[in-house]
From TrEMBL:
InterPro entries: Kinesin_motor_dom_sf, Myosin_head_motor_dom-like, P-loop_NTPase
Top-level taxon in the UniProt lineage: Eukaryota
The protein's name: Class II myosin
Main location: cytoplasm
Source organism of the structure: Cerrena zonata
Keyword tags: Actin-binding, ATP-binding, Cytoplasm, Cytoskeleton, Motor protein, Myosin, Nucleotide-binding, Repeat
Chain segments carrying region Disordered: 1-24
GO CC entries: actin cortical patch; cell tip; myosin complex; plasma membrane
Length: 536
């Protein structure tokens, strides 16, 4: 296993907000992508077949070592790329993939299937970046999900014959709200700005400034991000991966639906129920979707009739839960669909693999909530692996072999992991969060208050924790982060109303029933099977 650590602690802090931290634009621009001529084909050739001690340090050297160990010893390989948000993990992961694809496939000699797998593996990058990355205050192309890509090789010649992607926890909250100057997932801007005329007509699609979900954060264009080019790359990637036209149509139909759902606003009627503020939004959409091939979009209309019986205060929550649910399940569907294309033609061959883990990096914002605690917890866990595998294991070996050396002092972040994940004797943060939801199930504010009270017990004896009434600070290995309590229990509960699920389950739209299969609905509506929280 190789661990690549990208960037340093200070760099990430500097990138947080250039204007605020006083960094001049010119300095900040240094962090933007610049071709420095080290990822060329010629440079790649220099690392091919070389021991990493013979050549200058480079991600290609790590990739070459992995491929060498795979081939020479038949050992499965894995590289974990860690570092703070914006440190360059995704770029490094792509270079590693490119290198492995290049050295393991000779385009002239390889069979059609091998080059097809290679092309598909590389095409997963633009596709999943469009749907799973977004512009944040720290990184114009920030991964908002974790990804483990496993390239599988035929052990008789070590050429790639299959691949598989595991997706970890998409930050779906981003679909419905973003911090000012951040963006929703890239695909929403690509699609609304540059979609083909037939989609514009079919979905009544307009520019990103029309939709609340793409415009409320006041960031539609991003320096250095070319939404038009990226959209063409996304479409090309869909072709390469083998997504058929009707599958692509379904994906874009769902994106349009999400955007229009976000534009539905409510007013309170005399009895405190929600009434739709502007019927023209729903009417216009209904007309578009009731044309010929979209006639089966009746679930959408039903959903709005249903919403009228909701209390005003819950209607926005309900609307957003629907949009998040659709996008999250759409994203998972895309990953599974990609995996289907990447499956080996001959399942019975015993395969060897190289895995590449690229996750969302550690992040600190002015306001940090549930999303940041999840992301930062993952990074703490990776730091633990790094400590265990490199620092602790190495030094333990020196002790065992009685080698004299000067011990290296390091901070073991296990204490922070325990603070977050422990269940007993002292419940950690996640346990407290889950308990608070059970105690005050129906009332979000009450659940937040219970959580706030429990926090004093959680961190009583932990010097990496400070309770700040309505906020709390965790002293992470990479910096102190202040988290807001308000809204945390709701985000953790991540519930979709039963009524809403029933609407989806009765939908005659076939793709909706694929995204929300009966098993899922049964599990979610059955209180015994239903997960109480999204952290388990
Ligand atoms: N090797 C590199 N060469 C040139 N530019 C780079 C390189 N690595 C990163 N960058 C620039 O830095 C930006 C951030 O890189 P990247 O998206 O890989 O960060 P990350 O660590 O994956 O961040 P996150 O955790 O937010 O996903 C990129 O958009 C790119 O502009």
């Amino acid at each position: 296993m190789a661990i690549v650590k990208r960037g340093g602690r200070n760099k990430a802090k500097q990138q947080q907000a250039p204007a605020k931290s006083g960094i001049k634009k010119a300095e900040f621009d240094l962090h933007k992508k610049k071709e420095v001529g080290i990822y060329t084909y010629e440079n790649m050739q220099k690392y091919k077949g070389k021991n990493r001690l013979e050549v200058p340090p480079h991600v290609f050297a790590i990739a070459e070592t992995m491929y060498y160990h795979l081939k020479s010893y038949g050992e499965n390989q894995c590289v974990i790329i860690s570092g703070e948000s914006g440190a360059g993990k995704t770029e490094a992961a792509k270079q590693i993939m490119q290198y492995i694809a290049n050295v393991s496939v000779d385009d002239q000699a390889a069979s059609g299937n091998i080059t097809r797998i290679k092309d598909m593996v590389l095409a997963t990058n633009p596709l999943l970046e469009s749907f799973g990355c977004a512009k944040t205050l720290r990184n114009n192309n920030s991964s908002r999900h974790g990804k483990y890509l496993e390239i599988q090789f035929d052990p008789s010649n070590y050429q790639p014959i299959a691949a598989h992607i595991t997706n970890y926890l998409l930050e779906k909250q981003r679909v419905v709200s973003q911090i000012t100057n951040e963006r929703n997932f890239h695909i929403f801007y690509q699609f609304t700005k540059h979609c083909p005329p037939q989609y514009k007509q079919q979905f009544g699609l307009q520019g990103p400034e029309t939709y609340i979900y793409t415009s409320a954060a006041k960031c539609i264009n991003v320096d250095g991000v070319d939404d038009n080019k990226d959209f063409q790359d996304t479409l090309r990637a869909m072709q390469t991966i083998g997504l058929q036209q009707h599958e692509q149509d379904n994906i874009f139909k769902m994106l349009a639906a999400i955007l229009w759902i976000g534009n539905v606003s409510f007013v309170e009627d005399e009895s405190g129920n929600a009434a739709i503020r502007d019927e023209s939004v729903t009417k216009n959409f209904k007309e578009k979707y009731n044309r010929k091939s979209y006639a089966n979009f009746s679930w959408y209309e039903k959903r709005f009739n249903l919403s009228c019986s909701f209390k005003y205060c819950s209607s926005f929550f309900c609307r957003d839960a629907l949009a998040k649910g659709i996008y999250n399940n759409l994203f998972e569907w895309i990953v599974e669909r990609v995996n289907l294309s990447l499956e080996a033609q001959n399942q019975s061959v015993e395969k060897k693999s190289i895995g590449i883990l690229d996750i969302y990096g550690f992040e600190i914002f002015e306001q940090n909530s549930f999303e940041q605690i999840c992301i930062n917890y993952v990074n703490e866990k990776l730091q633990q692996i790094f400590i265990q595998l490199t620092l602790k294991a190495e030094q333990d070996e020196y002790v065992q072999e009685q080698i004299k050396w000067t011990p290296i002092d390091y901070f073991n972040n296990k204490v922070v992991c325990d603070l977050i994940e422990a269940t007993r004797p002292q419940p950690g943060l996640f346990a407290a969060l889950n308990d608070s939801i059970k105690t005050a199930h129906a009332d979000s504010d009450a659940a937040d208050q219970v959580f706030a009270q429990r926090l004093s017990m959680v961190g009583a004896s932990n010097r990496h924790f400070e309770d700040r009434r309505g906020k709390f600070i965790i002293k992470h290995y990479a910096g102190d982060v202040t988290y807001e309590v308000a809204g945390m229990t709701d985000k953790n509960k991540d519930s979709m109303l039963r009524d809403l699920l029933e609407v989806l389950s009765t939908s005659s739209n076939q793709f909706i029933s694929v995204l929300f299969p009966p098993e899922l609905l049964a599990a979610l509506t059955d209180s015994k099977k239903r997960p109480e929280t999204c952290i388990r």
